[in-house]
Backbone:
């Protein structure tokens, strides 16, 4: 069974085809980073305009290996995300599925990040714990089965990726912040600044706003003096990685799960991966490859497969839901 997945919730126009929920046939991602870089963050109106231009060529290119006539269903992200961008993907998917006489499935973007794990050569077997770290969300889930997610905790303020993006700006590093902080950290000392490890040992909720403020206050102390950017980046990255790793370890203990997976854009961070693996030496730890960490269409198709199995098609009049929860 071939499913087409369409993703336009933020600043990537993406489409992918997945076979039987497990095999990536195509995964085409058109990023808008060059559009938004000048503004230091995603401008929703511009994101929408570019999705309109890019959606058709991206879907056409995703369909090159199989063709629309081979598809069994279409899946599209309905939320959470930016309303205008979501509506463009949803409207396109409604028209495309109607024209090709295919069922349409609405997918939660966070569930899609988790479903990216379904595409690994050896996916984790439920039950497992998943740490989801994106630009807009940060949470820990207990995955009892594919499609059955119990949230253990989430961020009370900034998301993990958002903290990377804001700290990048404080350090004068280019957008998008996560990859710039990671590159800058390469030559830095992670012990140079003892930034806080927020809320560790205190349940499963996260808080990154205070950590960001701690970095801002330290930057301010330098005044006109040159910033040791690499040390700042490495110390901040270490604080995030240790915080995430410690919360993940507590979640494994509480749920008695043996497997841990990390998904979302920030899961591409190599130091985060290392610290999480080192802190959880007895767990089986799963990370998607970088192209399945950030936003993409294949993960939406994989989540669509789970919806097909549960027979949950999208009602024809369904709308986008920008603040959809998981
Ligand atoms: O999952 P994603 O592509 O989009 C959302 O659903 O938000 O995540 C994007 C976030 C951004 O905040 C970006 O800075 C962060 O992931 N990110 C990283 C890295 N690559 C992307 N953060 C840290 N290290 C990275 N290598
Ligand atoms: Zn995402």
Residues:
């Amino acid at each position: 069974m071939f499913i087409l997945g369409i993703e336009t919730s933020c600043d990537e126009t993406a489409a992918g085809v997945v076979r039987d929920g497990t095999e990536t046939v195509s995964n085409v991602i058109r990023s808008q980073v060059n559009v938004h870089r000048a503004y230091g963050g995603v401008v929703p109106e511009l994101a929408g305009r570019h999705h309109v231009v890019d959606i058709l060529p991206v879907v056409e290119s995703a369909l090159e290996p199989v063709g629309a006539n081979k598809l069994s269903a279409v899946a599209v992200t309905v939320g959470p995300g930016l309303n205008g961008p979501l509506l463009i993907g949803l409207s396109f998917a409604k028209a495309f599925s109607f024209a090709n006489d295919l069922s349409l499935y609405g997918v939660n973007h966070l569930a899609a990040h988790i479903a990216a794990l379904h595409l690994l050569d050896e996916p984790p077997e439920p039950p497992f714990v998943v740490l989801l770290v994106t630009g807009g969300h940060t949470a820990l889930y207990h995955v009892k089965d594919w499609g059955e997610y119990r949230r253990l905790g989430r961020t009370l303020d900034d998301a993990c990726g958002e903290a990377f993006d804001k700290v990048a700006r404080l350090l004068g590093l280019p957008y998008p912040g996560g990859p710039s902080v990671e590159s800058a950290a390469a030559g830095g000392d992670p012990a140079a600044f003892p930034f806080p490890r927020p809320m560790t040992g205190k349940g499963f909720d996260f808080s990154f706003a205070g950590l960001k403020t701690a970095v801002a206050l330290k930057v301010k102390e330098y005044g006109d003096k040159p910033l040791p950017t690499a040390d700042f980046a490495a110390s901040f990255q270490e604080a995030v990685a240790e915080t995430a790793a410690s919360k993940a370890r507590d979640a494994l203990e509480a749920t008695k799960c043996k497997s841990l997976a990390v998904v979302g854009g920030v899961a591409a961070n190599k130091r985060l991966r290392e610290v999480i693996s080192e802190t959880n030496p007895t767990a089986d730890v799963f990370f998607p490859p970088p192209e399945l960490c950030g936003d993409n269409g294949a993960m939406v198709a994989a989540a669509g497969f789970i919806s097909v199995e549960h027979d949950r098609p999208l009602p024809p009049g369904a709308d986008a839901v920008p603040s959809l929860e998981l």
